[in-house]
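Aim 2, interim progress. The first record below pairs a target sequence with its structure tokens.
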Amino acid sequence: MAKISNITIQNVKGFGTTDNSFNVEIISGKINILVAPNGFGKSSITAAFDSLKSGKIELEKKNCHKGNEALIPTLSIIEDGVTYTANKTRNQISQRYKIFCIKNLINAKAISKNMGKF
């Protein structure tokens, strides 16, 4: 089975050109769910994958890093040592993978801490 070991995102929402590479273990043919604390970049990662079109990344202005449409968005993944890239002029990722982003809009609304009681 193929395994994705790294995802790198540049100039998408909260990701610029630094602190944007993630070592992961994503196995092909399996459902993969991203769970992380607030501020980790879940919506930025989702925006990057959701912006993949057949031949390039088409990023909405609201998803551009710092709202700057001049910055070039890039998404790269490493699968079994081979790098596949998508940017404004090409998309090697969609040629190889089918990607579906499901956004769950459920929000936890806690108003106080509960110490040990359910």
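The second target in this work package is listed in the same format:
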Amino acid sequence: RHRIYVMLIAVFGLLALIAPNFTTTNNVISILKATSLYALVAAGFTVVMICGQLDLSVGSVVTLGGLVTIGLQAHVGWTGSILLAAVAGMLVGAVNGLLVTKAKVNSFIVTLGTMIIVQGLVFRISGGRTLTIDDFSLGMLLEKTILGILSPRVLLTLLAILGVELILQRTSPGRTFYMIGGNRDTAWHAGLAVDGMTIVAFMLSGLLAGLGGALFAITINSAPPTLGANTLMIVVAAVIIGGTSMAG
């Protein structure tokens, strides 16, 4: 039940023994900052997988979120661009959810398609170029170390993970996700909004992926068209190793 913590301690202990300076404060800070993007996206992906579905589009949505944030910051400000990145992610999630629930297409096929479409859209909008911005203020604030080893970006990620955990464990909608993943027909016969909650799960995944891309792009003050290229496989691995069943 607690194997993930045992694995974490074992890996951390091994690296502390064989890797020079692994346990230094600067290295721990770097690890936390580097993994915060994947952790944020994995929180939403977990909900989708609990429902017995997959969301292969998260990497492309991360890139889209970064592109929207950096590209529109000069026009609508940081707040507006981050909100638009979140909305863009939710829209992709809504499309995924509608195609899975209403068109009855397997989520693997649906999200593979939206992954390709969104990535193509990103290249179309950006022209294959990396978008940059001259306003470094928010990026520096998000990366500033506070409370010893934590930065605001890491704290926001932890708060998002805690929020998802509370929803899953302490609320009726959260328990509905588990019931849908356990047996979709039973959940439907129990009077639960199976299609609606599945769509919500995909929208939550898109929302957190979009926000993850936005925060990451802000900290590097740019949005390359390959921003989320390596995100998907790391997120899938994190969610499965973390204990989420691929069967729902």
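The two ends are 17 Å apart (CA to CA). This observation will shape the mutagenesis plan for the next reporting period.
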